[in-house]
Amino acid sequence: MSQERAIAHLEAIRQDIRDEIKKRVQQRDRYSIQLTIALSAIVAVSFSNPDWSKVLIAAPLVSIYFTMLILYSYRVHRISAAYLREKIEPELARLCETSPDIEWEKYYQAHAVPGIRESFFKWALWVVTIASLVYLWTLESKNCGFIIALSLTTAAYIGTALWIMCAFRREKKAMRDWPQKTAPRYRNAVFLDRDGTINVDTHFPHRIESLEFIPKAIDGLRLLATLPLDIIVASNQAGIARGIFTRNQMSQFNAELRTRVEDAGGRIDAFYFCPHLEMKHLRPGDSPCACSKPSPGMLLEAAMDFKLDLSKSFLIGDKTSDIAAGESVGCVTILVKTGKEGKEEGALPVKPEYLAENLYDAALILQSYLEPGKVN
Ligand SMILES: [Mg+2]
Ligand SMILES: [Zn+2]
Hints:
Layout (H helix, E strand, L loop, with lengths): L2 H46 L9 H39 L5 H11 L1 H27 L5 H25 L4 E2 L12 E4 L24 H8 L5 E7 L1 H4 L5 H17 L6 E5 L22 H10 L7 E4 L2 H9 L3 E5 L17 E3 L2 H12 L6
Parallel strand pairs: 2-3, 2-5, 3-4, 5-6, 6-7
Antiparallel strand pairs: 1-4
The structure holds magnesium ion and zinc ion.
Magnesium ion binds next to loops.
């Protein structure tokens, strides 16, 4: 990839991540205000009339809900900022021969230092919860209905916890599916699409019986295993969100695929998958997740886990959405003519760097990149 293109890619990623961080900061401000208003309203109502004092029981619930959202927002903020600081900025500075962006660093520092504010939220949650429950206890201890109230509170807490878990799921992060964490080896990777690139893309393949390798795919994986690259499968598995198969079925399918690849002398270092709906199946108004290709979420998460240099990594896939995901983070992209051949419904106007007949031909292209001397 040319220098200018690499810089343009990195700048685009930098902008995306900065936007993400700004969004998180605003999101936390919003949550804090909502939390304050909700708590004030509950306290005001519960003290305005002795009959309404039980309303106070809602205070811990509201606090738990918002605090979890705020803490999660901090987490995303930290991960994004670390990626920016440790990968993108140094790489850009190196390519452009400049120093990292000071102005942004100031903005980040002003809003980052999550220590105090983050622990403030944690402590506030405890204080609100304990204070409300102690107050209610002293108020209601002579009341035999208190046991019922306490039971209801417990049920409500469990309900809130479930609600929060759902909220976290809505954050829509990519997921990992590999048995033990493989140590990063090479600092660059080849990202492989699964269905239509490695195995035949029967409609939502998930049964082990329907696992069938595309001709030459195993040869390709065997060749890739000889190259200095981490081999990472990144696959949209919207069948999970659509209820066609379960995550467990997908894991079994992946495990079988991996075993067969290993038996044939190949290797797969990790599986990442997006269990969410793809853009075309979203209901109007629902926002897409960050991991479903063409979004690069899975590649970014793998880059964090494996400390990858994405601008020195590769992507091989059979759809334009695969190519778009790779392109948006600066990978060298190869479209294979197996599977959908880049002609899927709603194909994107992207141009892969290379076209290859199958995974083996794609692996040969990678070999010529990485070991130019060895290719005749
Ligand atoms: Mg595919
Ligand atoms: Zn997703």
